[in-house]
């Protein structure tokens, strides 16, 4: 009640209402909606209230529009009074990963900005429709991972608004993405009885079908803009370069380049806006969405979203704007380490987590040890600025270790990026078949979707913020049911297991719910679309392994085996540290693994040829090599012990074969000398 009194913006009811909704999420999302009688209390009061509000609002609009606001008409459950409207952003990947030349040092910043832009476009596409229909924010019942569903009334007016807004959104997007991205809106009609348990399953299947159909057909591009008018005339050849250095697609713009003089390269209006978003999302706490003509001081977008929304990162109360109806949304976007959430305005944790330069980075010598030119090192030092997003080069350097050898402290390892792409397996199936028909209700589905989303948008950023090991993890995207992270490669492999374990815990060890992941290890200057491709194909490989798996260094294993591999890495490292084995021995192991794989192939065939015989002898070679090389630095009894201990590797190879390349590569990369 105390928090309720402190809610801001009572002068604008729609704004205040969204703050109230956020407050309810904080206090009521863990309170059951029904306790009395023989009910299973699995839907929270928060989710239940949201859905009730959505249905009530649509119902009111329907009857108000038809001038039938009387009890009898309202009680009619058979008329198709509702519209379930679905929105879907197509071409997200292409939109995020387009890259120009010569703007590498800003990649981390602009990618973060684009990812935020996609979230804003998706959310504001729904807002555009809701606002015009006079529906509140709670009418948006699902919203995760670039897709949403809202509930509206089935009236002429609503159908017209949907059509008109779809056109407005796509004309704008067509211009901005040069036809590479689009927003699909689809709908079905429904009666009150279609929301009842037992019937809602069919309703859901219908909308899912419509969605798939629309995605398949994509959009009629000629309808939205067709060819871009005067495209070539938009290029100004005196700008350097005339094609934006950041996206490599759109024409550079004089005003944008002027505002971004410090970049040294000409830039287009949209990339200007993405840099602005990427830069501010990490340092500002609040984000305001206003009408384009709102009087906002300080920086803002050059191109208002859909020509209808301005975005800025102002702080303060903004009461005057709210009163004038020009402040549409006002969000707290950052989470903090205490885990406390803002209670005066809406919490929307869009900021995710990205690493920024801290004091301790200025005392970190690892940059100086990389095999880079002096000029490059100098540039990397100049780039460091407390509170700014770290570049991918700086993140990669954090995978090196400093080790003391022969009285000298030297870096070991390779400065590379690990790129982790992961998503929940069979989410579509979980959503459509995970609940019994009689339990299949819109509030249960909404709760499932919201909770899944929260693992990625609330829990993970909090984990990165509070766990020292993961403070250099860059979140490109985390939401809905998927994840795209970039970090020092060895922190990423470590993190993948932690995410899997936490997710298992979060889903109460339900064996039907699991995720798959793919990790790519790449140099930080690899083109970003290439990086995305490699990570994507690693994820696909994991999915092919009957899911619930991870692919790393080209090898795919189930999660439990991956944990085993990590134990092997530790064992190998400890032998290496104590001098049992040397580098040459590690490389030998790789040969034995090859031969063991070959042996398996041979044994599976009916006949054995003479030239196959070699691989069958790997065990003998293994013993011979072990006798000669293991524990060279040790004496008698200890030497024998070392050899016996190392002999267990034969069993590892027999049991895991190629999978053992995972610990091997991890070892090799972590122990490479000279920071190459
Ligand atoms: Zn651009």
Name the CATH architecture of the largest domain: 2-Layer Sandwich
Low-pLDDT regions: none
The structural domain count equals 3
CATH homologous superfamily descriptor of the largest domain: Reverse transcriptase/Diguanylate cyclase domain
Hetero ligands: zinc ion
Strand order of the largest sheet: 12-13-11-14-15-16
Q: How many strands appear in the DSSP assignment?
A: 16
Could you estimate the helical fraction of the residues in percent?
Answer: 40-55%
Count of helical regions? 24
Quickly give the structural class: alpha+beta
Mean pLDDT over all positions: 89
What is CATH's topology name of the largest domain? Alpha-Beta Plaits
The profile of the biggest β sheet is: 6 strands, mixed
Q: What overall form do the CA principal axes indicate?
A: globular
Supply the CATH class of the largest domain: Alpha Beta
Strand content: 5-15%
| Spatial gap, N to C terminus | 59 Å
Global Rg:
29 Å
Explained architecture:
Helices cover 46% and strands 14% of the residues. It contains 24 helices and 16 strands. Helix 6 (107-133) runs antiparallel to helix 7 (156-177) and helix 6 (107-133) crosses helix 10 (269-281). The termini are far apart. The radius of gyration is 29 Å and the shape is globular. The protein has helices at 2-6, 13-28, 45-65, 71-75, 92-97, 107-133, 156-177, 200-217, 254-259, 269-281, 319-323, 366-369, 374-383, 392-397, 427-433, 442-466, 489-506, 528-544, 559-577, 583-604, 618-629, 636-647, 649-656, 661-670; strands at 82-90, 140-144, 147-153, 182-190, 286-290, 310-312, 327-332, 346-347, 401-405, 408-412, 417-424, 474-479, 482-488, 515-522, 549-552, 555-558. The protein binds zinc ion. Zinc ion (ZN) binds at residues 244, 246-247, 250, 267-268, 270-271.
